[in-house]
Structures are given as structure tokens and as C-alpha cells.
Write a sequence for this structure.
């Protein structure tokens, strides 16, 4: 396992990500990861606070339109996240909080997919938000917040 | 005119600054809150800006505006935690060109919002729920969205573009 991680970290792509003096290397990859975070968790906040009743005048079916923003921003963060991991694979793979972050993101994606499905099933006629959708909304907000906390702790633990 | 250098020296020497620098966990704690706050500001404001620009027309501007208190809460978190960073390491920010750009974009976002609230908001709220917005309002939305993205860019790139880290 250590061998694999070391070879990932020593690969040309990882070395470039970590060591290139170019502004388009590490700084831009990290910044794109932050933009992706803002879009994923930001769009997610709009959806979930609306489901929880913070803006009752927003028609619930229209929230479906925000999911594509989340999926595209997540794709960006998957790619930039893989690059950031590769550039520091041996360290990151040894940090327990890294696995906590991955697990929280997995749960968050599963919740988002369940919400998206539930909203599609309900079609355009939704008036009240069913209780299970409210629960998912709350879980989603908590889990994404946890993922941010875990992500930040990666730099400190 | 306040002299930036003497202000930086004074702030960095305050007991609060010393206390912040001696703590191991205040910085990571505030930084994490700063990230949570930014998702609220960018997400909620971005959604409202997009509506002003004419997207999400099935949501009325008034309905999209209902979420704005959350964006203000996010901004309050980020203003407070940002002041913690500034107090702890004033030289790192005040001597950094990119930090001043960030402050500039924050002011642009603020003035743009003030302009909207004082001149256009009432007219827009009176529009039919699904109506398109006038061009002036679209421009307000675009300026807001662009300035917040620029704030995020300057903040994240501070250690890489700046000259005093």
C-alpha cells in the first residue's frame, strides 16, 4: 500500500501539481476546489433551507433546477480533489480525518440523490414538504458542514 | 488619513492579538467557520443574483429574497472571523495588495446591493411573480455575482498572489 501511495505521489502529474511554480498549478487547483465547494454546498444550502421552510414562497418543484449545479460543481471537486490527494498521497492516506471527510461526502451525495429522486417523484404538484424530505434536508446540511470541518482539519491535524 | 503602518503595528501589539497568536485552535476554528460562512454568502446571494439576471423565473424575486437573512448571517460570521484573522496577523493582510483587492470587491458588492435596495428593489418586488427583470436589474445581479466570486478568488489566492505572506 505504501508503495502504491509513494508511486502516486511520485507520478509526473502529482509532482507538477505539488511543485510547479506556475500559478496554474497548485494555487489554481486549490482555488477551483474552493469554488466548487461554494457551488456544491451553496446550492445545497438553497435547496435544504427552502425544504425546511425558510422561504415558503419558493415553489418546491423548482428546487430540482439546482441539482445540476451541484452535480457539475461536484465533478469539478472530484477532479481537483483527486489531484490534491495525489500531490500529497502518503500523508493524506495516513490521516483519519481524510476518511471521515470521504465518508461524509459519500453520505451527502446519497442524501442529495434521494432528495432529487423524491422531488422528481412528486412532480410539479408539491404543496407541502413531506416529513422524510425535511429530515433529508436537515441531514444534508449537517453532513456537508461536517465535510467542510473535516476538510479544514486535514490541514491542521 | 490613517497611517496603515502604525495601525498595523498597534493592532499587532494589542493583548487580543497576542492572545489569538498563542492559541493553537482559534485560527483553525475561525477558518472553518469562514468556509461555512462563505458557502452561505455565495450560495444564497448567488441564487438571488441569478434570479435578478432572469434565471429561475418560476421563483419570484420576492421568494428568492426570503433566503437573504441566511446570506447576511453567513456574512456576519465571515466579517467576525475575518476580523480575528486581521487582528492576529495585521501585517500579513494590510501589506498584501491582493487583500486590498478583496476589500475593494467587498465594497463593490456592498455598494451594488445598496444601490439595488434603494432604487430598484421596490419596483422589482412589484413585478409579476414569473416576470423577466429589466436590464438594469440584470446588470445589478451580474455585478453582485462577479464581485462575490472575485472576493472568493482574492481570499483563496491571498497566499499565492500576494507579496507579504
Amino acid at each position: 500500500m505504501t508503495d502504491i501511495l509513494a508511486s502516486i505521489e511520485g507520478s509526473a502529474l502529482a509532482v507538477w501539481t505539488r511543485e510547479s511554480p506556475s500559478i496554474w498549478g497548485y494555487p489554481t487547483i486549490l482555488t477551483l476546489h474552493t469554488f466548487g465547494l461554494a457551488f456544491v454546498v451553496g446550492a445545497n444550502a438553497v435547496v435544504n433551507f427552502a425544504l425546511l421552510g425558510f422561504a415558503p414562497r419558493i415553489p418546491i418543484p423548482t428546487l430540482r433546477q439546482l441539482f445540476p449545479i451541484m452535480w457539475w460543481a461536484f465533478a469539478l471537486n472530484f477532479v481537483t480533489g483527486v489531484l490534491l490527494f495525489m500531490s500529497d498521497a502518503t500523508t493524506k492516506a495516513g490521516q483519519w480525518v481524510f476518511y471521515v471527510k470521504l465518508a461524509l461526502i459519500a453520505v451527502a451525495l446519497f442524501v442529495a440523490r434521494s432528495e432529487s429522486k423524491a422531488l422528481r417523484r412528486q412532480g410539479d404538484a408539491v404543496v407541502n414538504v413531506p416529513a422524510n424530505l425535511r429530515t433529508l434536508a436537515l441531514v444534508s446540511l449537517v453532513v456537508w458542514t461536517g465535510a467542510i470541518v473535516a476538510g479544514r482539519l486535514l490541514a491542521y491535524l | 488619513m490613517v497611517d496603515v503602518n502604525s495601525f498595523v503595528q498597534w493592532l499587532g501589539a494589542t493583548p487580543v492579538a497576542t492572545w489569538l497568536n498563542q492559541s493553537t485552535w482559534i485560527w483553525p476554528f475561525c477558518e472553518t467557520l469562514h468556509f461555512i460562512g462563505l458557502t452561505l454568502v455565495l450560495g444564497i446571494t448567488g441564487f438571488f443574483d441569478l434570479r435578478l439576471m432572469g434565471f429561475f423565473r418560476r421563483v419570484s424575486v420576492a421568494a428568492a429574497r426570503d433566503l437573504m437573512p441566511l446570506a447576511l448571517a453567513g456574512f456576519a460570521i465571515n466579517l467576525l472571523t475575518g476580523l480575528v484573522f486581521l487582528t492576529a496577523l495585521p501585517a500579513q493582510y494590510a501589506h498584501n495588495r491582493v487583500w486590498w483587492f478583496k476589500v475593494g470587491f467587498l465594497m463593490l458588492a456592498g455598494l451594488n446591493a445598496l444601490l439595488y435596495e434603494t432604487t430598484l428593489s421596490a419596483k422589482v418586488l412589484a413585478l409579476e411573480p414569473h416576470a423577466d427583470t429589466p436590464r438594469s436589474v440584470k446588470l445589478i445581479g451580474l455585478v453582485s455575482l462577479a464581485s462575490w466570486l472575485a472576493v472568493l478568488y482574492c481570499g483563496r489566492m491571498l497566499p499565492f498572489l500576494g507579496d507579504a505572506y
Notes: Residues 4-161 of chain B form one domain. Chain B touches chain A through 31 residues (CB under 8 Å). The helical segments of chain B are 4-12, 15-22, 26-52, 61-65, 68-88, 90-94, 97-125, 135-161.
